[in-house]
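Q: How do we represent a protein-ligand complex in a form that can be generated token by token?
A: Start from the inputs.
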Amino acid sequence: MTDRKKVTIRTLFDKATKSEPISWLTCYDYPTAYFQEQAEMDMLLVGDSLGMTMLGYDGTLPVTMDDMIRHTQAVRRGAPTAFLVGDMPYMSYQASVESAVLNAGRFMAEASCDAIKLEGGHVMADRMRAIVNAGIPAVGHLGLTPQSVAALGGFRVQGKGAVQAKEIIDDAKALEEAGAFCILLEMVPDRVTKIITERAENCLIMSLGSGPDAHGQLLIFHDMFGLYPKFTPKMAKVYGNAGEVLQNGLIQYNKEVKDKTFPKKENWFTMSDEEYTDLQELLD
Ligand code: KIV
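Then emit the structure tokens for the protein with 3-methyl-2-oxobutanoic acid bound:
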């Protein structure tokens, strides 16, 4: 196991002060959390993207709080020192300030999160403020916000035009003023990210496909390793093809069972001749 100390908000701000970029990855299960912990990832996000990557839905909307809690608990068991962010799923905070605080509280109490994340700009500032006032660290999410993908007209870059870019910049300020200690910018042009990062006073700005001028970077784990069969977004960097390794192994296993080259002696257990003789006597 890694012997690093627990990553806290203070650790993250210290990194930003030293211009040391923060690493962040999505994570949804125990074994992946274990590997990410060994790699000393600073932050992990149990994203509601698990609806697609783990549960096979076409989008994130069907994901429930119970789904999120179960996966986040598993991730925490695998990654005790990483800074763990739980993603508030669809309709766990949109309906009311009260539901937002109660569901954010579930993440902290039941899954030992370090913070929660919610999507949306100034319209979500009251939820953000109430969650922070309840003592729960909160991350905002602007730009391409998958829970509103229908309203945004699809998975596309947000803020390419000056007017929309200004709205995103204003939204970032509104979230910071509401108490967000961190804001994720997803698919926002690099120049807009730079402006938001330069203007942030007490808030970490993280980039997902939004350029280098943020305090850190986030990627979706499944995109990095060829583990999501439906598509790989442009912003992802592929670090290895684990999907191909798995597929080849599965084809090979299926073939070996059928042509009887699996199992071999080292793959099964046996019993001594003496015990076997006794057993036969017992059976007779
Ligand atoms: O659910 C998720 O993984 C996310 C990322 C797309 C940022 O929110």
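Residues 245-283 form one domain. Residues 213 and 270 are 61 Å apart (CA to CA).
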